[in-house]
Amino acid sequence: MAFRNKFRMTEANDRSDAAHGIEGVLLANRDRIIRFLSVRGAGDAAEDLFQDLWMRLTERHSGPVADPLSYVMRAANNLMLDRYRSVRQSQLRDKAWGEASAVQNPGAEAVLISREQLAMTERAIAATGDRPAHIFRRFRFDGMLQRDIAAEMGISISTVEADLRKVYAALAAVRRQFDVG
């Protein structure tokens, strides 16, 4: 038992010594590390990145490091790579959002084509008859179950299914016209 406690105390001291060792390297080489971060592209954010580096390295519980300065510089380089990747992902995301917003603001021609296609779709649904059109709207727009529609209208579920197939066939024909035109 005493051996375990002594081992735990030694382990805690090793962690503490390692943290103080890294802190000492960070303090002794602060200007050098900030210059390194600046040259690697951090610019004015080098001070903030140094603080991030400090937090990353002093929070970790690591054992003794053979070459602490190399360890710190490699960690600084990895921090810059993480930052670069983050900025790159942000730029790609912003570009994608920009392209998506361009699609959301269609030109006059696209608006006219969409209105024409909507009118064709509404005519195709209406051409299937009043009951199939009503069943389709209740099912697709109102989200009712087929059995509930059948009960509401006093018809069988198979009739509801047949009417839905009729409307879907009409919509498929309209869709083919869109694809061709």
TrEMBL record:
InterPro entries per record: RNA_pol_sigma-70-like (IPR039425), RNA_pol_sigma-70_dom (IPR014284), RNA_pol_sigma70_r2 (IPR007627), RNA_pol_sigma_r2 (IPR013325), RNA_pol_sigma_r3/r4-like (IPR013324), WH-like_DNA-bd_sf (IPR036388)
Residue ranges crossing the lipid bilayer per the database entry: none
RNA polymerase sigma-70 region domain mapped to chain residues: 30-87
Signal sequence residues: none
Gene3D superfamilies (alphabetical): 1.10.1740.10, Winged helix-like DNA-binding domain superfamily/Winged helix DNA-binding domain
Superkingdom as given in the UniProt entry: Bacteria
Alphabetized GO MF terms: sigma factor activity
Similarity-based family: Belongs to the sigma-70 factor family. ECF subfamily.
Protein name: RNA polymerase sigma-70 factor, ECF subfamily
Organism annotation: Sphingopyxis terrae subsp. ummariensis
